[in-house]
Amino acid sequence: MKILVCISNVPDTTTKIKLTADKTAIDLANVQWIINPWDELALTRALELKEASAGKITKVSVISVGNQSAEPTIRKALAIGADDAFRVNAEAKDAYFAAFQIAEAVKTEAYDIILCGIESSDYNGSAFGGMLAEFMDHPSVSSVSNFEFAGEVVKVNREIPGGYEVVEPALPFVAIVQKGIAKEPRIPSMRGIMMARQKPLKVVEAAPAEAMTEFVAFEPPQPKAACKMVDPANVAELVELLHKEAKII
Amino acid sequence: MSVLIYTENFDGKFKKTTFETVSYGAEIAHQMGTTAIALSLGSVADNELLTLGNYGASKVLKVNDARFSNLDNQAFAAVIAQAVEKEGANVVIMSGSNIAKAVAPRVSVKLKAGLVFAVSGLPKNLSPFTVPKKVFHGKAFADVVIKSPVKIISLAQNSFGVKENRQTAVIEAFDAKIDDAAFKTKVTSVEKSTGKIILTDAEIIVSGGRGMKSADNWKPLEELAGILGAATACSRPVSDEGWRPHSEHVGQTGKIIAPNLYIACGISGAIQHLAGVSSSKVIVAINSDKEAPIFSAADYGIIGDAQKVLPELIGAFKKFKAEN
Ligand SMILES: Cc1cc2nc3c(=O)[nH]c(=O)nc-3n(C[C@H](O)[C@H](O)[C@H](O)COP(=O)(O)OP(=O)(O)OC[C@H]3O[C@@H](n4cnc5c(N)ncnc54)[C@H](O)[C@@H]3O)c2cc1C
Ligand SMILES: Nc1ncnc2c1ncn2[C@@H]1O[C@H](COP(=O)(O)O)[C@@H](O)[C@H]1O
User: Fold this and answer.
1) In terms of domains, do B160 and B206 share one?
2) In a domain? residue B194
3) Is residue B41 part of a domain?
4) Is residue B193 a part of any domain in this protein?
């Protein structure tokens, strides 16, 4: 059995967002790049499953659509413990384009389980995993907060309002994961970093495809009015403000 | 030409977010000079379906088929795509919920239709079709053009509001073509708490951070939530410590919420926390450190010890509730 984890290369979550002068793009100079946090957790869980599988899971691969500058992020995934990696050599114009590329790149590889994150922390698209599943004609389960094997059967928890459902998908399938999937992301060890240099990273050329959407302009958020301070000795004033000024109670 | 709105039901009932989605779709239909058609999958009674007319749907397509009482992403997407084709819809509207996240991307591929998730308002332009959206969890706003003939928009919760727009909706049974083999995921059990206000539904949320100091100190916070009819939430370290359940964790790696009122007690306001709460209409912060970054995100602030301020607030809100 083989697992594929789709990883997106995103600016560090604490990055200050600056726009280019013409406001048509985010200024990416001096940005630190990381593995999208959900993908790091997905990879961690994939490795845990492999280790617990007594040899049944033979390989955990990672794949990313991106140009050469995404390679340090992919190498980091290898350092964390992925066995091999693919990079589709193209700028990921949108989720539709990226999902199409990955479906093309792995269609002959027969992965049994594909893991994606529920959202990229940059463009907050929440689109990729479902699109990939549809391109591959695989079932998918989204909002997955737990992933286990019960013998041959895969059991995942899917979050629903107020709780969760246990879902058994037919394999191969795509799991779109969120909080809970793994506790803490694994951190690469020194040995992992050394070994990552030798692990295979295959570059695949992009297939012809179009993007369906395009980001054309950006704006910073409206500056927020200064916070109104209320004296802790007179909290009734806060209630009054929420009632009369903000009109929300 | 038409606008098709996929309406989610929860055990046969619609919620505020469904009505918001319909209100939004009806407004876009109005802008385009066309009609708004709602689509409902699963068992929903006709009198419930008719309520969609109150928010501008002139037709409700129902697929009254018990197989749709459990979500199967692939089967749901197939039927939604069939309905879009049958109605010749060129705009498809969904909510911003987990169900939309599960289904909308698949519909997008089926119809070769561009999808923008968590749109924050009406289209800025119909040609080219341009919608606004938050990116980087609210650190910037973007205009996104959808280039395909059919467009799919998911609306971010609480960004349009429920707007009445009474139409007499006609209900039409839609005979979707889908065989049992299309359902490839099986729900084997459900764990659900009842009676509690669900975080993503709540109008008011009272939340605590590490500044609450221990799990025992949550009593006044829960009491305040009770008085306000609010749900309770927490920052990530609080759920990591096990002081509160993981389902309460809000922020970039927890739940993204957009209530009318968010009361943050002993929360510093880290960027990853704000990513999940900054869409709240009004934020109140209680923090002992006047330099805490939460105050730059808040509308109202109290500098003080949450242990002392909370009982005072409980008293003041009780008094208010008694008088109003
Ligand atoms: C990739 C990543 C993702 C993350 N995702 C999330 C997320 O989704 N959600 C999230 O919340 N965090 C997240 N974090 C963690 C985040 O960076 C902060 O560490 C966290 O939000 C801090 O929680 P806090 O405000 O409760 O605690 P602290 O930062 O410790 O703040 C406690 C606050 O309480 C105040 N205080 C202390 N005593 C009192 C008192 N008696 N009365 C009143 N106030 C008092 C202090 O002044 C302080 O401001 C993430 C971090 C990373 C790296
Ligand atoms: N360029 C990419 N390469 C590989 N996987 C990606 C890429 N973009 C998004 N993903 C996957 O899709 C998830 C998020 O979806 P989205 O928010 O639609 O970008 C991420 O967590 C990744 O698993």
Assistant:
1) no
2) no
3) yes
4) no
* Residue A124 with chain B: CB contacts under 8 Å: 117-118, 133-137
State the total domains in chain B: 2
- Residues B108 and B203 grouped into a single domain: no
Q: Which domains does chain A have, with CATH numbers?
A: 2-219 (3.40.50.620)
Tell me how far apart the alpha carbons of residues B257 and B209 are, in angstroms, rounded to a whole number. Answer: 16
**Looking at the complex, does the CB of residue B299 fall below 8 Å from at least one CB of chain A?**
yes
Say how many residues make up chain A.
249
Cβ contact A249–B115 (<8 Å): no
Are B84 and B30 members of one domain? yes
Regarding an ipTM greater than 0.85, the answer is: yes
Strand ranges, E, within chain B: 3-7, 36-41, 59-63, 91-94, 114-119, 125-126, 129-135, 140-146, 151-155, 170-173, 185-192, 204-208, 231-234, 261-265, 282-287, 300-303
Residue of B136, B244, B249, B252 with the most ligand 1 atoms within 8 Å of its CB, for mutation: B252
**How many Cα atoms within 13 Å fall on the side-chain side of residue A223?**
2
Task: Provide CB contacts within 8 A for A198, sequence distance 6+.
Answer: none
Q: What is the pLDDT along chain A (249 residues), one digit of tens a residue?
A: 999 999 999 999 999 999 999 999 999 999 999 999 999 999 999 999 999 999 999 999 999 999 999 999 999 999 999 999 999 999 999 999 999 999 999 999 999 999 999 999 999 999 999 999 999 999 999 999 999 999 989 999 999 998 999 999 999 999 999 999 999 999 999 999 999 999 999 999 999 999 999 999 999 998 889 999 999 999 999 999 999 999 999
pLDDT average, residue stretch B150-179: 95
Residues of the domain holding B270: 199-323
pTM score, two decimals?
0.96
Q: Which two tokens stand for residue B294?
A: 């939460």
Closest ligand 2 atom number to CA of residue B105? 18
Q: At what angle do helices B73-87 and A128-136 cross, to 10 degrees?
A: 90
CB contact under 8 A, A161 and B10: yes
B93 CA: distance to closest CA in chain A (Å): 15
| Rg of chain A on CA atoms, in Å | 21
Asked if A36 and A5 touch (Cβ cutoff 8 Å), the reply is no
Closest residue in B to A23 (Cα) is: B142
Say whether B315 sits in a helix, a strand or coil.
Answer: helix
